[in-house]
Amino acid sequence: MNRRQFLAGAAAGTAISALDWLRFFRAFGVPGTKKELGLAQAAAAEATDPHFLIYWFQEGGWDGYSMFNPVHTPNDAIRVIPAGTLRPTPSWSQHLYRPKSYGTSPLDPPRTQGNIQYGYLAQDGLELFNNLAVVSSHNGNTFHSGGRWEYHYGKYSASLSGKRNPDERTVMQAFCEAYGNGFLLPHVSWHRWLSDGELSIPSYPDGTGYYERLGPVHAHTIYGKTPAAMRERLSSLGSVAQGQRDARIRQFTDNLQQNFLDSKNSESVAAFASALEIHRSLTAGGTINLDPRTLFTNTTLRAEFGITAADEATDSSSINGNPARSKETPNTNVQALMTYELMTKGLSIGFFIENRGLRHFDSHRDRRFIMNNKGQADQRDMMRKNLWSPLKTLVAKLKATPYGTTGKSYYDFTTIVLASEMGRTISGDVESILANTGLTDTQKYDEILGQDCCQHWRVSSAAFLGGTVRGNTQYGRVGSTSLEGIPLMPDGTLDPAYDPDTGLLVPGRTKSTSSFITDSGHLYSTALYLSGLNPAALKAAGKGRNDRAPLTFIKKP
């Protein structure tokens, strides 16, 4: 057995985490001789490559038809239709409504850069396209809370209000269970599932809905909140009693050298080395500066991420007339800066970034607004502020920051997933209104104008980037006539039974039994696969229930 093999890992239930070690150091001091401490650090250095995972989520539902599942249509909102008209030509049901000024710069029709066709909402991200793998045949979920839940947990039969089972995991919990034991705060998230006002808080007691404490402690969700809250959390670590783990740690420290050489303790060894570095930093005895009071305050970094004092504030909103709720999170540029520092300071490995505003991208508009405005609402400024500007800065910083002496950057070890829980409609069917004999023509016209034509819609898209991602690629597309995603074959090509332009079945052909439209479950398994994990093996081991296979064609050969 070589040194790499004996570092393969102990069972998570018996291993000692970095947080356990750090609390012990604070209470009793650091045990061991220089030789023993050096052995631990050398052993930890022999461990496998690091892994980092970031989900960047646009909560509320982006306009996918103007993003990564682009389609070119007329904008019928510019038509002048006499008041009271029930049956214009083309009919109300045939109208397609795009954002105001669509078709003219900067709201251009779909364009192509490299191998990727994109809508104008992706224009600000062009410099990342060589790194992107875009998935354009993708279905979200038209129920806000259900969709958001599925992008955490994947796809399988489950009750949102039911008790979570021991074998369920969010994608970030599964990732951090595998890789997070040696880190102080492995899993940091800025989402708040219960912040949505469509959910009744009494209906989701602890252990239901999104449950933070699945898997071992190092997989549990830690809410990142604001920079000030995170600084306070880090400053207070060590004041918490170790409790039931003291006995195991004391037993381990009785014979440090033997335990550092014992294969069954490999996770504890790595965690010891990580905690030792953190402890030395916190007590001014290390080689790096990790003073919690100065985290997230570097003026150069703050300027690079474009952070103002207002960006660090939280906000709240009332949904469906319920009392206002908050995610307790800052803007995404602040979340991105915190992600960068927590990652590069060796504190965290898994991050779920989400826009601060509740349902921020939920841009409902009725036909009356659309016709008066000459178009739908435009999400371009929101997309730039919440996604492209901070994402480009974060990627640039990760690429420019070397990871130790590996000769690689932090970006090379990172996987990033871009998604939203749903897309948005661009039309509205009025036939049921016209057929309603109980309405006068005036009432019918009023209902037609009051119809929501920017509703929740399943047709959407997603994207990956990172060190293992095959960049400058696109898989799937939306049919110009069907406005639906064209199913993918297992190798990522389009199902040949469909016309690749219109998206309609070719006459005489039938859908392949192997083709499919991707969904949140495919993103879940692909994120883990790109991070070096086997999703099927994790499920078999009781570490997640997602039943979708990874999109293996997204990984670099």
Walkthrough of the structure:
By secondary structure, the protein is an alpha/beta fold. 29% of the residues lie in helices and 9% in strands. The strands form 3 sheets. An 8-stranded mixed sheet has the order 6-5-7-1-8-11-4-12, with helices on both faces. Helix 2 crosses helix 9 (266-282). It contains 17 helices and 12 strands.
Overview in brief:
This protein is α/β, with parallel strands linked by helices and 557 residues long. Helices cover 29% and strands 9% of the residues.
List keywords for this structure.
two-stranded antiparallel ribbon, disordered N terminus, alpha/beta, 557 residues, globular, 29% helix
Largest sheet: 8 strands, mixed
Beta-sheet strand percentage? 5-15%
Q: Kindly name the structural category.
A: alpha/beta
Quick check: average pLDDT?
87
Q: Pick out the low-confidence regions.
A: 1-13, 34-46, 238-248, 283-289
Strand order of the largest sheet: 6-5-7-1-8-11-4-12
Query: Rg from C-alpha positions?
Result: 26 Å
What is the number of E strands? 12
> Helical amount among residues, as a percent range?
25-40%
Distance between the termini: 30 Å
What is the count of DSSP helices, taking H or I runs of 4+ residues?
17
